[in-house]
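Hi W.,

Here's what went into the run:
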Amino acid sequence: MAAALEVRNLRTQFLGPNGYITVVDGVNLELAQGETLAIVGESGSGKSVTAMSILRVLPEPPARIDAGQVLLDGRDLLTLDEDAMRAVRGHQISMIFQEPMTSLNPVMTVGDQIVEALCEHRDISNKEAFEEAVALLERVRIPDARRRAVEYPHRLSGGMRQRVMIAMALACRPQILIADEPTTALDVTVQAQILALLAKLQSEFGMGILLITHNLGVVARVAQRVIVMYAGRVVEEAPVGPLFKDPLHPYTEGLLGATPRMHADAEEGARQRLVDIPGTVPLPDKLPAGCAFAPRCPKAFDRCVKERPALVTNRDGRKTACFLTQEAS
Amino acid sequence: MEGLRDFWRRYRRKTSAVIGLALLVLVLVVALFGPLIVSGDPWDMATMPFLWPGADAAYPLGSDTLGRDILTGIIHGSRVSLLIGFSATVAALGIGVTVGALAGYFRGWIDDVLMRITEIFQTVPTFLLAVVLVAIFKPSMLTIVLAISAVTWPSIARLVRAEFLSLREREFVQSCVVIGMGETRIIFRQILPNCLPPIIVMSSVMVASAILTESGLSFLGLGDPNLMSWGTMIGIGREAMRTAWYMSAIPGVAILITVLALNLVGEGLNDALNPRLKNR
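Here's what came out:
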């Protein structure tokens, strides 16, 4: 399947007090139409910065995209000027955020906000746009959409607002939807509804979804492939099934170990302690010379501290950046 | 509609605000309809000079040093004062909102340049600058309005800039950016409506201060020579201050009432529009 979106060797830096600090380093990813790719990692691993670099919405300065390519249907977005880029945003690539509470304009009705999104990219009358906004609200399964359209965001619940955000993001039928922690701020039952909605809309619209999350439960439910990021670099890439069954990188293993699981017996569940990963993510300006995960890795050896492992494709098509798995294969 | 009713419910909680609004409506009614009822030119020498209020039923507020009817002057003056007050505020809002919005939204060098210009205006005493501006250009309605707006826009600009600096970091602005919305649209359609409450509150007080500035200019003889404003009347009365104090006092009370009304309304609006007080 040809990739609709392809990121090659992306490097994003931020200006610190002593020069530029690399926050995203050499990230590669591919996303096809109708596919869901998840990026997982701890806070500060560079997931969101990668997404914002793709859309080029980081404030420049202090940020700068130092190297790489972002190819959308073969066109490099990093070379476009601001006007051309604006035409891409919303129209071809759109994005939704974590906080549905603050992501809507508090002084504008939700219908008008969708109308604004529609009018930006299409030449339609206000009345037509409003009808389309109502239709979109129906598609994101908002009951009584016509009445809801004239209400202000504070009248809607968190789940409803996230639905409105999705409607806004999909207003112009983008090929790619970037969802940055779309369900983190919602409670569990609403999370499940929103994920089901995204999956349903994906099959209706056929867009590719780039899902950014630290919730592995979400990943298992909706993604087909997973990229694990650590300290601004990709450490493992695999289809979702094999990754959960047999994590190759010690960091992925650690992440899965730190995920709570259901146990048939409550007693047994209480005995099973969650395994945590000792230490914290190193600051981007204090990365060790070798593997960034080495100081926290239970399996680290001499070479890990001295040399940085590259992301290498294994025999079974999975990619890892770890000497252990590379030596084994 | 529902929001309007809600707003009124919060506004009327404060008695002083309701009184202020009533006074303001009274002044507005006088300005709108007064000149239709009270015929005659305020500059006409209608009766004998130095007529005290109440001395002649045909001229209830008396007459000035040249025998001009003070009631006619007050009524015509309300039009001049309010017109200048409102149009100077509108002009100041136009400049101030644009400058503040651009500086706060784009930041960086645009902000630096615009704020330095704003500060230059702020370092000069406002009334003095207004006097100089009106003196350079011939005093007329237009130049007075321009002079007043030229000295009052910096405070609006700073207010709007501060609002924009915080609002532009909000997530809804970010979500407008990622769906490809243009900057003009984001500034004027998305962010500006969010900072309307403080702007509305400030402009009601600005109308009051513009009226005071105009009165000050007229008092100094820098008013529009063809218009009878309250300041002009006080200026005329000044010559006879010791013998006929009413000539200055009556237009002075008119200014007092109008400015007080506007300040009370401003305070009431502040309470009614302040989101922190919304839910008590």
